[in-house]
Amino acid sequence: MQEDQRRAYAALARLTNWMTAHEEPNTRELAEAYSEIDLLTDNDKLKEAAILLLEAVVKARDTARSTINQGGENPYGTPQYITVRDLWGKSRSDFIRLAKEELGQ
User: Fold this and answer.
1) pLDDT given at position 1
2) Which candidate in 31, 61, 64, 82 could, as Cys together with 75 as Cys, close a disulfide (CB 3.0–4.6 Å)?
């Protein structure tokens, strides 16, 4: 069971590591990763952290994409993007910390 959890947590961490404004979020893979986590743990804090991470990734991508759609040249340098990028980073760190705790690391 713990090996299955490790793989599921690693999958979500991998899928949320990086995304550009030009990429569509792979919602199917993200949903599958979350579904595995949901099945493998009863830890509500960990599941909530996973949801917050997914929301932050999509928000960051959407914010960057909005800048491009409005004619901006550097979607990653706007104050709006920096704010959501920082939230994304915090959400990812929180998820990884809780995942490690769950795995006893």
Assistant:
1) 79
2) 64
